[in-house]
Amino acid sequence: MDTSAPPAYRRILLKLSGEALMGEQKFGIDPEVAAQIARDVAGVRRLGVEVALVIGGGNIFRGVAASARGMDRATADYMGMLATCINALALQDALEHEGVVTRTLTAIEMRAVAEPFIRRRAVRHLEKGRVVIFAAGTGNPYFTTDTAAALRAMEIRADVIFKATKVDGIYTADPVKHPDAERFDRITYLQVLEKGLQVMDATAISLCMDNHMPIVVFNLRTPGNLERAVRGESVGSLVMAG
Length: 242
Fold this sequence. Notes:
Layout: E1 11-16, H1 31-46, E2 50-55, H2 63-68, H3 73-97, E3 102-106, E4 115-116, H4 119-127, E5 131-135, H5 145-155, E6 160-165, E7 170-171, E8 183-184, E9 186-188, H6 189-195, H7 202-210, E10 215-219, H8 225-230, E11 236-240
Parallel strand pairs: 1-2, 1-6, 2-5, 3-4, 3-5, 6-10, 9-11
Antiparallel strand pairs: 7-8, 10-11
Helix pairs in contact: 1-3, 5-7, 6-7
């Protein structure tokens, strides 16, 4: 890592899946994984980069899966949103153990544990150097946390979305199951949609395309990767206009 390189971005949004917090477990939150993520975010904050996070809830409850088994989709999605709040509080605690001042803002009001999402307040927190965690998705059923990440990135005027995954970029197929899968260093929004690549859902990709928001897909499991990406090093795949 080139530690002399200045940050390439001023304000970033980091999208984490709920599964990212599981580690090697089959369910729930691995405190060691949360601590590692917190260390990476703390390192980026020390560079002066403003950081916002959106986290999913799939490690606790996945609304789409529940609705496929017969549960009302809106009810299942609201349960998924509550799961993201649990993850957000766990991540907030891990960050504060690293000495990072953090605020959780939620799209579903629960004033006893988090602030309600207000765009100007979120931006003010970022300007004051606080890490902001956006919980409860968009607050609406039928929208994923990918779409929430795209929406929040536009609202806070982030420079980039970092999509954290278990692999080192975007491939034509799952590289774990298909070792011959081709990796993309750069790819356009339209190519992602046309090829049906599982980067983010189509709504999120379209929103990013319409607003020229670049997406960097990288492997979160490699310590220091987030800082490398923030410094502009090539650590994953870049999605942008052609």
